[in-house]
Amino acid sequence: MTRQSFDPDRLGRIKPWMQRWVDQGKYPGAQTLIARHGELIYNDCVGLRDIENGVAWSTDTILRIYSMTKPVTSVAFLMLFEEALVHLDTPLDEILPEFKDIQVLAPGAERIDQVEPATTRLTVHHLLTHTSGMTYGFNEGVLPTAMNDARVAFNPRRPKAKESLSVSDGTEDLADMVRLLTELPLQFQPGSRWNYGVSTDVLGRVVEVVSGQPLDRFFAERILGPLGMDDTFFEVPEGKLDRFASCYLKMPDDPLRLLDSGAKSAFAERRVAIHSGGGGLLSTGADYLRFAEMLRGKGALGDVRLLAPKTVEVMTRNALRGDLASMGQPVFAEVSYDGIGFGLGVSVTLDPAIAKAAGSEGDYGWGGMASTVFWVDPVEDLVGMFLTQLVPSSSYPVRKEVRALTYAALTAP
Question: Residue 269: its pLDDT value, please?
Fold first, then answer.
């Protein structure tokens, strides 16, 4: 046996598994990390972070974590919650008045102007749990189509918005984009369903207003700096661009089409216009592991405490009436949502057998659009992570496979 009761031969299966994906031309490169009881057990990588220039993936590669930003934004909000500056049931329009009198698409609407008043007042809890009625432009339906037409997207840089809407100079910040969002209705009545969308981007704006700080500064001063996450930011500093991975897009005719060059990325320093709390952070495996270890430590990493243990317990318990499948989202990415709940910014395993994935009841985490994923298992006192740079995350079933490999190597409590 190896340290913390892992079988070294079984851990040895992970690198060949990653290498197979790379050799098949399905991922540019990949990295897997496993920690238990606060000790790093496994951290290895294969392949390239820049195919065009032949640069190898290294364990200090900087990458787009996209929606793995969401738990960070949720922690930021919960820090303000602990200071009694805001509550989980605070009406959103008390913080962001532009949400007052928000409309909702009428059932069966075929046009964006077929709306009805909201019968439930939108709260910050709806944002944290993705039950707000907000959506993403890459989803299907009347509202996503309207979002794309209006250029409502929390990307680092984006095209000029339509002149018919209030913001049209193409230089929007987070506040401008949230105001633009409120010119469109919600997809459904708040609290009635779960739907993945821009809720956490709006939550990032809530953090700004309540704290009186821009989101990037709040992150840097209150979370990233104290945790020692020196390679995590919204913009890659010029001196670190050589470690920034390129990102690839899976297409029917090309499984690794270049989407965003690391050297010329929109995420490079001084190119980012909007700080997206829903998907804007860049990080490394080692850095994000520090954040995940803080959660595993019930809000603390070493001598640094961001949240109280009871707050982390609330954050990581299911906040829905059932699982995600019963709340209207049977599948997302390549993962079935039977047996999976959702807390305050993280998914929560309710029943591993129903979820059909190795793990424990109560383990929690989230993934990102470029096929990244992390989870924390309080039962086994374990953190796992898989990193690559391929959009979309639904391309291949790696999330369940990396869990299977991890738990197969775990031999004792």
Answer: 80
